[in-house]
Amino acid sequence: MATETPLKGFIGESIKRKEDDRFIQGKGNYVDDIVLPGMLHMSILRSPFAHARIKSIKADAAQAVPGVVAVVTGDLLAQHKLAWMPTLSGDTQAVLATDKVRFQGQEVACVIATDPYVARDAAQLIEVDYDVLPAVVDPYQALEPGAPLVRDEKEGQSSNHIYHWEAGDKAKTEQAFARAERVVSLETFYPRCHPSPVETCGIVADISPVTGNATIYMTSQAPHAHRTLFAIVAGLPEEKIRILSPDIGGGFGNKVPIYPGYVVATAASLLLGKPVKWVEDRSENLISTGFARDYHMKGELAVTNDGRMLGLRVKMLSDNGAFYADAQPSKFRAGLFHIVTGSYDIPAAHVETDGAYTNKAPGGVAYRCSFRVTEASYLIERLVETAAIDLKMDPAELRSKNFIRPEQFPYTSATGFDYDSGQYEKALRLALEKAGYDELRKEQAEKRKRGELMGIGLASFTEVVGAGPGKHFDIAGLRMFDSAELRVHPTGKAILKLGVKSQGQGHETTFAQIVTEELGIPAVDVMVQEGDTDNTPYGLGTYASRSTPVGGAATAMVSRKLRDKAKKIAAHLLEASEADIDFDHGKFFVQGAPSKSKTIQEIAFAAYTNLPDGMEAGLEGVTYYDPPNFTYPFGTYLVVVDIDRGTGQAKVRRMIAVDDCGVRINPMIVEGQIHGGLAEGFGIAFMQLITFDEEGNCLGSNFTDYLLPTSWETPNFETYETVTPSPHHPIGAKGIGESATVGSPAAFVNAVIDAVAHLGIKNIDMPVTSDKIWSALHEVGAAE
Amino acid sequence: MLPAPFEYSAPETMDEALDLLDALGDESKVLAGGQSLIPLLKLRFASPAHLVDVNRVAELDFLDEHDGVLRIGPLFRHKAAERSGMLASKYAVIAEAARQVADPIVRNRGTVGGSLAHADPAGDWGSVMLALDAEFVLRSKRGSRTIRARDFFSGPFSSALKSNELLVEIRVPAADGRKGGSYLKLERKVGDFATVAVAVHLQMDDGKVKSAGIGLTAVGPQNLKADRAEAALKGRALDDATIKEAAALAAAAAEPKADNRGSVDYKRNVVRVFTERGLRRARERAQGGA
Question: Is the separation of the CB atoms in A763 and A188 below 8 Å?
Answer without folding.
Answer: yes
